[in-house]
Amino acid sequence: MGEYMPPYTISNRMLELVSSISEKVGRITSHKDLEAKPHLRRNNRIRSIHSSLKIEDNSLSLDEVRDVINGHMVIGDKTEIQEVKNAFAAYDEIGKINPGSIDDLKRIHGIMTYLTVKESGDFRKGEEGVFSGDKCIFVAPPPNMVPELMEQLLNWVKDYEGKVHPLIMAAVFHYEFVFIHPFADGNGRMARLWHTVILYRWRKIFEAVPLESQIEKYQQEYYDAIAKCHINGNSDFFIEFMLEIIDGIMDEVINQISKSGANTSEYVKRMLTVMEYDVPYTATSVMEQLGLKSRDTLRKNYINPAIELGLVKMTIPDKPNSKNQRYVKI
């Protein structure tokens, strides 16, 4: 058996996008730009989880996902709540995952699908197809071929790390993984997480880049790109699509950092520091932690500027002076 190589061809457009993304990554001068802003990193992680699950028809809102992750009571479907807990635990493993390891792949799938899927952490035993309504648009390879196909794909990731640009490798892996459809359930979630894992190995900032939120925004185009590659027999169209997606989300992250950096007063920075946890705070509790006596000073110098910058939101925005008002970091 010859050396396995997924079918794709590098185009000029791909090279332009790789260059653009690399330049934008460089503008975020180091991981410290995001390390210094834990509220941004955590918020982006929650957005990633919410979007990846929403693509798979999980109905929980962003606020409900945030509440589940923060250990608050959420009234909803038990399976959907468990999916959020599982995804949070799986994303927490990003820094420990070897993207070329079958053992790691199965282990993380076991975390991602804990208590929600019968074949959790194991390759599928049955036939699988992808449907659009009642129409089958794609039939996955038979289950007996899955172990060998996944071994080939993961060996390619392992052997070509450092030889194929991670931005290209992550997109090729993502498409080939979806094509093989190795698990009975959770393939989309795993493909998107592994995409981030491969990029994280290149630049650690990708741990805090909500790639999934951009995919969700262009969800139909995402499925269309995959379908087009099925027809063409290579991942070229999907590579370009994913590079466009990443190029766009990098602009958003750069904007986030600048908004919460240069334009943020020392007052707001201090308040974000004392609002250490992603939970609702009363005005009184924030004042106490800041050592303030005046509620007017709190509103004028701290709360209102933070709300204008999109760094803090009110829990009851239509009643700003409500006695039940709370403030949450975004």
TrEMBL record:
One GO molecular-function entry: ATP binding
Domain FHA: 23-79
Binding site for ATP: D185, G186, N187, G188, R189, M190, A191, R192, Y222, Y223
Catalytic residues identified in the record: H181
Protein's name according to its UniProt entry: Fic family protein
The species this protein was found in: Anaerovibrio lipolyticus
Keywords recorded for this protein, A-Z: ATP-binding, Nucleotide-binding
Site features described as Important for autoinhibition of adenylyltransferase activity, chain residue numbers: E56
Fido domain residues: 100-244
Keyword Nucleotide-binding: yes
